[in-house]
Design goal:
Radius of gyration: 19 Å
Distance between the termini: 29 Å
Structural class: alpha/beta
Largest sheet: 6 strands, parallel
Helix content: 25-40%
Order of helices and strands: EHEHEEHEHEHEEEEEHHEEEEEH
Strand content: 15-25%
Strand order of the largest sheet: 3-2-1-4-5-6
Bound molecules: nicotinamide-adenine-dinucleotide
Shape: globular
């Protein structure tokens, strides 16, 4: 991988709302030196590439190219998959599984052929199922296939906690684990602000303690926020793109950053053979150790039922 030479190539599959905004976020953050966009829609990919290229003067040195030929992804260090159907109003992420697993079946072998050394980052929904499908299709070391998982949900969670407790979002440490979807669960027991456990938060700045009712409201809002955004503007793109570019940066700069990415679990609290998000160390080789986060009995039950939900959808499509 070329990360130490700062010549890293990021191939983004799908130049839709999410893919194009990930490219934009990477450019602005100075993550990666070469960005390649691949999309079956030639007019769309050409237009996005042109628009991004017109902004190059204002960002750290980089190049952007695009094509409807998968060859544009050749020798990428990271392949980010965003291609596929997105949720329409009223649809859950799991409703996309069939169409998007089919796209993956066709696409992933072609990409692997041209970018055999890449780390694969899945964003297409349902991301846990699609990550599992990609693990199985590629046969790559499990560390090299990860999903954006609940990195986005955790940032939504932290934002809501920060707003309620009147502190900077950067000082909130809290994770959403499990499925990136309706069965995800907030890990309240290990959450903290500064070094104050969240469950002991007494309400600095007049914010008041986080009662069970307030906590339930926050958790519900995290789950429902994508539905609200889709209702208003048809897609979610900014926060997922920032989350995606953060994961890419952690890989390219070998940061060892703790992020709740989705990866194949192997006896994580007895959970195996399913891709789910738990806090894990992310660096040059992709996803490393999963952290043994302390879980309450209730959290463990929640994580197991999230695992069952994701596994049963993957099984329906022969994975
Ligand atoms: N994981 C997350 O946190 C997260 C957040 C938001 C969206 N998503 C998901 O990301 C995906 C993309 O969402 P979007 O809003 O960008 O959708 P979009 O419709 O704007 O873009 C999808 C793009 O994929 C392209 N495409 C379709 N099939 C392709 C193929 N075989 N090869 C190459 N390109 C192909 C389409 O031409 C289109 O440009 C959806 O599945 C959505 O649910 C995930």
């Amino acid at each position: 991988m070329a990360q130490t030479k700062n010549t890293a190539k990021i191939a983004i599959i799908g130049a839709g709302s999410v893919g194009a905004t990930i490219a934009y976020a990477c450019l602005i953050r100075g993550v990666g030196k070469q960005i390649a966009l691949f999309d079956v829609n030639r007019a769309k990919v050409d237009a996005e590439v042109l628009d991004l290229n017109h902004g190059l003067q204002f960002v750290p040195m980089a190049t952007v190219e695009g094509s409807d030929d998968v060859g544009v992804c050749a020798d990428a260090d990271i392949v980010v998959i965003t291609a596929g159907a997105k949720q329409k109003q009223g649809q859950t992420r799991m409703d996309l599984a069939s169409a998007n697993a089919d796209i993956c079946r066709k696409l992933v072998p072609q990409i692997l052929h041209v970018a055999p050394d890449a780390v694969f980052l899945l964003v297409t929904n349902p991301v846990d199922v699609i990550t599992y499908v990609t693990v199985k299709l590629t046969g790559l070391p499990h560390s090299r296939v990860l999903g954006s998982g609940t990195v986005l949900d955790s940032s939504r969670f932290r934002y809501l906690i920060a707003e309620r407790c009147r502190v900077a979002v950067q000082n909130v440490h809290a994770y959403i684990a499990g499925e990136h979807g309706d069965t995800e669960l907030p890990l309240w027991g290990s959450a903290s602000i500064g070094s104050v456990p969240l469950l002991e938060w007494t309400g600095a700045g007049g914010s008041g303690p986080l009662t069970a009712e307030i906590r339930d409201g926050i958790a519900r809002e995290v789950v429902e926020s994508a539905y609200r955004i889709i209702e208003g503007k048809g897609a979610t793109n900014y926060a997922v793109a920032l989350a995606g570019s953060r994961i890419i940066e952690a890989i390219l700069k070998d940061e060892g950053r703790v992020l709740p990415v989705s990866s194949l679990l192997d006896d994580f609290y007895g959970i195996s053979d399913v891709c789910l998000s738990v806090p894990a160390i992310v660096g040059a080789s992709g996803v490393g150790e999963r952290l043994p986060v302390p879980l309450s009995d209730e959290e463990l039950v929640g994580l197991r039922s999230s695992a069952d939900a994701v596994r049963s959808v993957a099984r329906q499509f022969g994975f």
